[in-house]
Amino acid sequence: MATASNEFKLIVPSNIERYNPSAVTLSCRLSPEISAVDLEIRWFKETDCVCVYKNSKVTEGRGYEGRVSLFTQELERGNVSLQLRNCTESDDGYYLCQVTDGDRTEEITVYMSKCS
């Protein structure tokens, strides 16, 4: 019997957050609100890998060292949002959030235009 544990989709909350220019949050969460602790989370900007979460470890992409983080304490509640610090105009654009559970991958695009 198939388990429903990997039945989820990604949503981008529609409520606009108040952005701090020094730290922008790209909101993304799992629906239903299941734990993402054991999942693989990847954030991309175009073809650049911004951040990878795998085996409880966050790896920052080249050029994003020290500037990106996930809300690891909120992964249990399905929060897979990305925080980007010290952003510049070149950080504006489309970001892809990709969450993988075994052989199943869900992805969603988040647009950011807060840094310019």
UniProtKB/TrEMBL annotation:
Molecular functions per Gene Ontology: signaling receptor binding
Domain of life: Eukaryota
Protein's UniProt name: Ig-like domain-containing protein
Cited PANTHER family: BUTYROPHILIN, BUTYROPHILIN-LIKE PROTEIN 9
GO annotation terms (biological process): regulation of cytokine production; regulation of leukocyte cell-cell adhesion; regulation of T cell activation; T cell receptor signaling pathway
Coiled coil: none
A single GO cellular-component term on record: external side of plasma membrane
Keyword Transcription regulation in annotation: no
Chief location of this protein within or outside the cell: membrane
Cell location: Membrane
Keyword flag Glycoprotein: yes
Domain Ig-like per the UniProt entry, residue ranges: 22-109
Annotated keywords: Disulfide bond, Glycoprotein, Immunoglobulin domain, Membrane, Signal
Protein source organism: Tachysurus vachellii
Pfam families: V-set
